[in-house]
Amino acid sequence: MDDYLLAAQIGRFLQISSGFFWTITYILVIVQGVKDRKVGIPVAAVCANITWEALFLFVFPIEPVQIVINAIWFLLDCVILVLLLKYAKSLSPSPSLILNKYTVLLFGLVIAFLMNFAITVEFHDMIGKYTAFGMNFMMSLLFIDMLLKHGTKGQSITIGYTKLIGTLCSSILFAFIYPDSMLLLTLFILIFILDVAYIILLRSRLRIKV
What's the confidence (pLDDT) of residue 97? Predict the structure, then answer.
């Protein structure tokens, strides 16, 4: 019984820690975005995040602590969404494709919600682990792509570290809950490698810039 309680307490600590560091990440993205007048999260990642939070806040609520965390993330992502619309001249995926940014965002949100919903139902994943870590992997790739293509505006080393720590906490938690999941383990490792690579690249770019 004592071992069970200890495991439960460690799990709760990791859950809250992940929620805390990701909340700090979103706040720092907002602050840096206002400062640089550019949001440091790609539009695809914003659409994926906000629809995941809406799905597991309103459609498939998980449990009280995670509901609170999801609500905080959802509100912060709404702010990021507003900043994205405010500062982005265009959200078109290609310069040759001229589309209204509101149209692009609407399509992005609809597609992201449908994909999150479909994966959740298909894999009977009512806590959103596959979609969450899948999105995290996508974000890690997009952060590097954004840095290489568009420079350092909207980004900071602190954002990189808080994302890494927040994801690491949730990765450790789910590694203990699902020790036999090869898919999750692969995602944990790849996300960690990409997040470390992003921090190294960003530090190098900022040093050159200075």
Answer: 44
